[in-house]
Design brief:
The protein is mainly α. The protein has a domain at 19-30 and 40-70. The protein has two helices and no strands. Helix 1 (10-30) packs antiparallel against helix 2. The longest helix has 23 residues, at 47-69. The protein is rod-shaped, with a radius of gyration of 19 Å. The mean pLDDT is 89.
């Protein structure tokens, strides 16, 4: 199969892979210990879990969108 017939190039797949890794990193930042009925964990309200992790995940989703929308370079 020729490369000209493929919708995505290697560059597209690389950008999408980087975006997915950023999303996974953002979800890992959200993780941590949970609050139960017996023990309250104030860490659930930390800046890392409430603000930083969702922003990192959102950036990852934007990078994946850019990877999908970027056009392949035309060959001469």
């Amino acid at each position: 199969m020729e490369n000209s017939k493929l919708a995505f190039t290697r560059r597209n797949f690389l950008i999408i892979a980087v975006g997915i890794l950023i999303i996974i990193f953002g979800f890992l930042l959200m993780g941590g210990s949970a609050t139960t009925e017996q023990v309250f964990q104030p860490d659930i309200f930390s800046v890392r879990r409430i603000r930083v992790a969702p922003i990192v995940s959102l950036i990852g989703f934007i990078v994946v969108g850019v990877g999908i929308l970027v056009r392949p370079k035309k060959k001469k």
